[in-house]
Amino acid sequence: MAKGIERYALDESSPYRTQFLESVRVPVDGTEFLMLSGLTPPVIDSSVPSDRAEAYGDTEVQTRNILAELKATLERRGYGLNDVVKVQAFLVGDARIGGHADFQGFSRAYAEAFGTTETPNIPVRTRVQVAGLVEPGWLVEIEAMAAKVG
Asked: Model confidence over 26-70: pLDDT tens digits?
């Protein structure tokens, strides 16, 4: 069990390294909480300008890729998807479906990560539609919190 708060910086290549952390581990009365900054989708098609959703995929693809990064980040810090207790998802309306957030596409990818045989624990969750995210092509950003009892 960690004795104090541990702060984990973003990767050296991130332009935001001096602005916010990748995650923070906080011990509280025998439980360790790991809070992660919002995760955003990687570029999957570099032939498309990064201000277009096509560079990152639709909501389902973006969600799937973000959840893969969430899993990798958790594992680097000694956690797993079963340790996730809270998820907050911010979805942007997709012009391809009339400007509405694709909650169904999000849920399909989400169901591949949580509530499965491998990861039966499901977290509390909030999904909201927002007007926009930092990069115009992003349709999804996900924050998460994990917890482990010492």
From this structure: 999 999 999 999 999 999 999 999 999 999 999 999 999 999 999
Helices 59-76 and 103-113, packing angle to 10 deg? 30
DSSP-assigned beta bridge partners for residue 8: 23
Structure tokens, 98:
């009339």
| Assigned token pair, 51 | 């201000």
Superfamily of domain 40-142 in CATH is RutC-like (3.30.1330.40)
Question: For the range 7-12, what are the long-range contacts, defined as Cβ-Cβ under 8 Å and sequence gap of 24 or more?
Answer: 8/77, 10/37
- Cα–Cα distance measured from residue 75 to residue 95, given in angstroms and rounded to the nearest whole number: 35
- Domain extents in the chain: 40-142
Q: What is the pLDDT of residue 2?
A: 53
pLDDT at 129: 97
C-alpha–C-alpha distance, residues 88 and 141, integer Å: 8
Q: How far apart are CA 48 and CA 8, in angstroms?
A: 32
